[in-house]
Write a structure and sequence with these properties.
Elements (H helix, E strand, L loop, with lengths): L21 E5 L2 H4 L8 E6 L15 H4 L2 H7 L6 H6 L10 H13 L5 E11 L7 E5 L2 E2 L8 E4 L14 H11 L2 E10 L16 E9 L22 E3 L15 H11 L5 E4 L6 H8 L3 E6 L2 H23 L1
Parallel strand pairs: 1-11, 2-3, 2-10, 7-9, 10-11
Antiparallel strand pairs: 3-8, 4-5, 4-6, 7-8
GO biological process, one term: methylation
Protein name: Methyltransferase
Organism: Sphaerotilus uruguayifluvii
Length: 324
């Protein structure tokens, strides 16, 4: 039987387009995915909101979703992201972690239509310890952010037990597999400068997951663009990169050294990179830096304006370099 060989720079024609472009759209990725042309994206790379960490200054229906009797009546099986959003819910603040996993997979699965057959999706996501009552701040939870806070209430039961590590990244990866995605790697991002927590009865969290998904073909084995020579030294699935400082009030900014190898290995020169939760635009910056076109989605208008200002300047510089 012939050995499976992924599409690589030598087996896939490189893009021959001119200078890269950049665009940032304001809105919910759930809607904006539908606006993209079919098979137009080479790489989707993002770090979406984590469950129960922050509200990003966006509105959320605290009264409804903190009503425990109402939430218990609905139950841990989500009615769907559209229903949740219609009732004023914000991704990451679901009353059940089970809802969050379902919603995140539901949203990102919509990227399947616009992602090329040879494309990849890289998703960075961290875990959460369960607490029935959790403090939610715009810039972080439980004392790690600003002073103003809300209380998120969550019913106990099942995996929802105090101090329980919820394994949200694993549950999300399985949910994506169940939707037909092929999981190629679970990269462990070791964070040597992770902020220590005050707990004295467990070790500190110093890693997150970075999942690499590709599309399941209608027949045969998955074949996709991948340039292994652009990976980190040793091409290992454990990488050590310091946490990057926040930017413009966003405390969860992609470190350049973490995403550069993902972009270089998983998108061709001249290709198009999409970050559907683009925040301050770090992934878009790196994509432009390496000659890829960049597209971002974000629901926070302040971040969208920040990205447009910063990235348009980067694009002008990149265009000048190409003309020299």
């Amino acid at each position: 039987m012939k050995e499976h060989v992924p599409a690589t720079p030598s087996t896939q024609k490189r893009a021959t387009q001119g200078a890269p472009s950049v665009e940032v759209r304001h809105g919910d990725a759930f809607d904006l995915f539908d606006e993209l042309p079919k098979s137009s994206i080479d790489l989707i790379i993002t770090s979406p909101p984590y469950w129960g960490h922050r509200d990003y200054g966006l509105p959320h229906n605290w009264d409804f979703f903190n009503d425990i009797p109402t939430v218990r009546e609905i139950g841990p099986v989500s009615p769907g992201y559209e229903w949740y959003r219609l009732h004023g819910g914000l991704l990451g603040l679901e009353p059940y972690p089970e809802w969050f996993v379902h919603h995140l997979a539901e949203i990102l699965d919509k990227g399947k239509r616009s992602l090329k057959a040879t494309g990849s999706m890289w998703i960075n996501i961290g875990d959460t310890y369960f607490a029935r009552w959790a403090s939610i701040r715009e810039q972080g939870r439980q004392g790690l952010g600003s002073e103003e806070r809300y209380r998120r209430k969550t019913p106990l039961g099942g995996i929802r037990a105090e101090k329980n590590l919820l394994l949200i990244p694993s549950r999300f990866a399985i949910a994506m597999q169940e939707r037909g995605w092929i999981l190629r790697n679970d990269v462990i991002w070791h964070k040597p400068n992770a902020v220590p927590r005050p707990e004295a009865d467990r070790l500190k969290n110093s890693h997150e997951h970075f999942f690499h998904f590709v599309k399941k073909p209608s027949a045969g084995r998955a074949s996709y663009y991948y340039d292994l020579e652009q990976a980190e030294a040793r091409a290992s699935d454990v990488v050590t990169v310091n946490v990057a400082p926040g930017e413009a009030g966003h405390s969860a900014t992609f470190p350049h050294a973490l995403i550069e190898p993902r972009i270089l290995t998983s998108s061709p020169p001249g290709g198009t990179v999409l970050d559907p939760f683009s925040g301050t635009g770090r992934a878009l910056e790196v994509a432009l830096e390496h000659g890829r076109s960049a597209l971002g989605f974000d629901a926070q208008a302040t971040f969208v304006q920040l990205q447009k200002t910063k990235l348009n300047g980067n694009l002008k510089q990149r265009t000048r370099e190409l003309r020299q």
